[in-house]
Amino acid sequence: MNENESLAERLSRFTPDGATIDRDSLLFAAGRASVRKSRSWIALVGALAASQLATLIFLWPRASVPTSPAESFAASEPAATVEREPVASSPYSLLRLQQSMFANEHGFPQRPVEEPLVPDEPPLHAFSSFPSRRLN
Amino acid sequence: MTPHDFTRLLDTHGGALVLYARQWCDSPEDVVQEAFLKLVALRQPPRQVVAWLYRVVRNAGIDASRGAHRRQRRETAAVKPDRWFVEDQADGLTAAAAVAALQTLPVDQREVIVARLWGGLGFEQIAEVAGCSQSTAFRRFNLGIEALRKELKLP
């Protein structure tokens, strides 16, 4: 047993040759392998894209385009039955004039008396006239 | 594991791991490199890093020996001579004689001797790496040393 121990000790004095390992390339590869591959940004981008798509779907302007003239007439017919509030318009609007002309047998309605467009008195100014003593 | 720890581990055990992997395959450097890269990729380093490396190298070495490129590797290895040890001679023993004697051993004895003498593993760790009991590892070691003594014609 003692000879075995001495042989083991003698053998252990040999140094294993590790020069065959490419140390630099191994350290480089280890540096690359040590980087954790984060996939959180992929989930974040997916969530953002989904939210954008949902927003686009919900907020897309829905213009109903009629497919045929018959359908468009049928679709517009109920709207004609709805009584609307008369639009306040000018007394000289074309519609008003036509209505009053057909309503009145004597012809066109009389023009309502209104205030004159040009005021009688001259407008007021802060310095309407230069003081005469300054002129002197 | 810090880069400093990794470098120290590579410098301390790289050569012994190459020698250990050489017991099964003809491309031990690739096997050792893969083992170190696996170690770096781990989120949590193993409790016994050295023993873990030996186990990974052992499994990868056995797999590599079964690979399809075995013949090609052998042809490549035949071109460049394998150098197992740095010294040509130590304590009256020549490296060539030691290598020749080691190559005569069965692989189960040889791996225990390499792991014990140059890897510095205890028999408990060797048993865990080799997948045998501690007493079996101890017995293989003694049988191997005895065979080496006879092969080297030492008293």
What's the structural blueprint in terms of helices and strands?
The complex is a heterodimer of chains A (136) and B (155).
Chain A: H1 2-11, H2 23-33, H3 40-59, H4 69-81, H5 94-103, H6 132-135
Chain B: H1 3-21, H2 28-41, H3 49-65, H4 70-79, E1 89-90, E2 93-94, H5 95-103, H6 107-117, H7 123-130, H8 134-151
Antiparallel strand pairs in B: 1-2
Helix content of chain A: 40-55%
Structural domain count of chain B: 2
State which percent range the strand residues of chain A make up. under 5%
Distance between the termini of chain A: 143 Å
Q: Output the radius of gyration of chain A.
A: 49 Å
Total DSSP E strands of chain A:
0
Q: In angstroms, what separates the terminal alpha carbons of chain B?
A: 46 Å
The number of helical segments of chain A is 6
Rounded to the nearest angstrom, the radius of gyration of chain B is: 16 Å
Order of helices and strands of chain A: HHHHHH
Structural class of chain B: mainly alpha
Number of strands of chain B: 2
Sheet of most strands of chain B:
2 strands, antiparallel
Tally of helical runs of chain B: 8
Summary of the model, kept short:
By secondary structure, chain A is an all-alpha fold.
Task: Please describe the structure with a list of short key phrases separated by commas or semicolons.
heterodimer; A: 136 residues; mainly alpha; 6 helices; B: 155 residues; Arc Repressor Mutant, subunit A; 2 domains; two-stranded antiparallel sheet; 8 helices; 3% strand; globular
Describe the 3D structure:
The complex is a heterodimer of chains A (136) and B (155). With 136 residues, chain A is mainly alpha-helical. Helix content of chain A is 50%, strand content 0%. Chain A is rod-shaped and about 145 Å long. Chain A starts with a helix and ends with a helix. Chain B has 155 residues and is mainly alpha-helical. Chain B folds into 2 domains: 1-81, no CATH class; 83-155, Arc Repressor Mutant, subunit A. Chain B is 68% helix and 3% strand. Chain B has helices at residues 3-21, 28-41, 49-65, 70-79, 95-103, 107-117, 123-130, 134-151; strands spanning 89-90, 93-94. In chain B, a hairpin with a 2-residue loop joins strand 1 and strand 2 (93-94). Chain B is globular and about 50 Å long. Chain B starts with a helix and ends with a helix. The mean pLDDT of chain B is 88. Chains A and B meet through helix 1 and helix 2 of A and helix 1, helix 2, helix 6 and helix 8 of B.
